[in-house]
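Posting this for the archive.
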Amino acid sequence: MKLSEIYKQDKTVLSFEIFPPKAAEELKNIDETLEMLCDLNPAYISVTFGAGGSSNNNKTIEICKKIKEKYHVEPVAHLTCLSYDKPEIDEFCKELEAAGIENILALRGDVNPNAPAKGVFKYASDLIEYVKPRTNFCIAGACYPECHLESGDRVTDLRNLKTKVDAGAEVLLSQLFFDNKAFFDMVEGARIAGIDVPITPGIMPCLTVKSIQRMVSTCGATLPENFKKIVERYEDKPEAFLDAGLAYAISQIIDLLVSGCDGIHLYTMNRPAAVKRICDGIKNII
C-alpha cells in the first residue's frame, strides 16, 4: 500500500526506521530485529541507504523485500542521489519495482569522500522531479524542524521544502528533534507556505550519552534545558540515562499525538527492545 493511502486511512500512523547492518553476519540476524519490530504493528518500516553501491549488492533492497514478503509490512526504501547518475537511479528503481516496493524516501544523501558526487542530482527535489514521472512510487521527502544545516534560515528552508513537495513528494518525514516547539513551528510555517501533505515527526530515543553527542554534532539538533539536565544528572549512570532517555521520548510522543500530529516515525537504531518499551508507554494513546 502506498504511504499516501496509509495516511488517509489512519491519522495516528506508527512507523519505524532501520538500517542495514554493515557486517554480513549481522545481516543474517536482521530477522530477530524485524520480528520484534513487526510484532509492534507498524504501518511501515523505512530502510536506510548507503551511498556508493550498485543495485546488485544493495542491502536496502534485500531487506525491503524481506519486510514485504516475510513480514507483510509495507517497506519504504531510502534512495539517495548525490553519488549516482541517471542510469544508476533508473537501475535502482527497476530493482525496487521488480521487488514490489511501492514507496521510497527520496534524499540527497550526505557528502561522502568515498562516494564522490556525480553532479547530476544536486538536491532531493531534483531526484523527485526525475523519478516521479518515470515510476509509480509514492515518494516521501525529508523535512527539518530546526532547518537543514545548509539552508541558513527558515524562509529558505521552507521554500526548498515547497519545491520538494511541488516536485511530487506526497509525505514528509522529519529529521530528529528534542524540542517539540521546533516541530510545531516548522509545521505551522509549512502550512502557511501551502504545503498540505502529511508531516510526520521523527523521534530518536536517546539511549547513551555518546549517541546524544553524535546526533548533536551531525544534525545540529538543539537540546532543551530539561534534556540537558538529564544528561548532566545521569551521564555517568548508563542504566539511569537509558530509562530517562526513553521516558523523555515517550513524553515527546504523547505531546505530539495529543496535538494532532500525522503519526510518529521512530528511528530505531536497530534496538527493538528499546522501541518496544516506548510502544508500551504509548499503546493506549496511538
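The chain has a mean pLDDT of 92. The first strand starts at residue 14 and ends at 18.
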